[in-house]
Specification:
The protein is 34% helix and 37% strand. By secondary structure, it is of the alpha+beta class. The protein has a domain at 14-19 and 67-176: Immunoglobulin-like (Sandwich). The strands form two sheets. Strands 1-8-9-4-3 form a five-stranded antiparallel β-sheet, with helices on one face. Strands 2-5-6-7 form a four-stranded mixed β-sheet, covered by helices on one side. Strand 3 and strand 4 form a beta hairpin. Helix 2 (21-45) packs across helix 3. The longest helix has 25 residues, at 21-45. The radius of gyration is 21 Å and the shape is globular. The relative contact order is 0.18.
């Protein structure tokens, strides 16, 4: 009986935290600043030779963000569902999700230990591994009904669509209130 409940719990997944869009917009700005600083370090390391700005930026992004994050956005009549396979096994508390009517933002950050070595020896450094995705959604969704669940290395985000009846009643309310 205990084995079955543990298996059911594993299949159910772990809820992921929803945060405000403002918080993740600030995170986006921080990530862009980190990438810019790292790109500038590449520029300096190459002797400040101009003409490699895009290469430096892409190299910095590659070092700071994890892009091979496979994701699938599916749409049905009732909802939009995102499945994202996260590299490196993030935990639910390392992920943040923000949902607005037509936009979804997924962010994650964790510390990893990286070993560096040469003929003189090796040393370990803590580095931040991050994901950051912004998805423009094809239809209006209801952020208050959204759910996000981490199952192993996959996060599933279910975004129920705003029904046509709700859209009409919202328009009627704003029309009657003089807005």
């Amino acid at each position: 009986m205990k084995e079955r409940s543990a298996r059911d719990k594993e299949n159910a997944g772990t809820p992921v935290t929803f945060v405000s869009a403002d918080m993740l917009e600030q995170r986006k700005s921080e990530i862009q600043n980190m990438i810019a600083r790292r790109a500038y370090e590449h520029f300096e390391h190459r002797g400040r030779v101009p003409g490699h700005e895009i290469e430096d930026w892409v190299q910095a992004e590659t070092e700071l963000l994890i892009y091979p994050c496979r994701h699938y956005l599916k749409e049905s009549a009732e909802a939009i569902i995102l499945h994202a396979e996260l590299p490196g096994f993030f935990t639910a508390d390392q992920l943040k999700v923000s949902v607005e009517a037509r936009r979804l933002i997924v962010s994650g950050e964790k510390e990893i230990s990286v070993l560096y070595g040469d003929a003189k020896g090796t040393h370990a450094e803590l580095r931040s591994q991050q994901i950051f995705r912004v998805h423009d959604l094809p239809a209006d969704v209801d952020p208050s009904k959204a759910t996000a669940t981490l199952k192993g290395a996959t996060v599933e985000i279910v975004l129920p669509k705003v029904s046509a009846a709700n859209k009409r009643s919202d328009r009627a309310k704003s029309g009657s209130s003089g807005k």
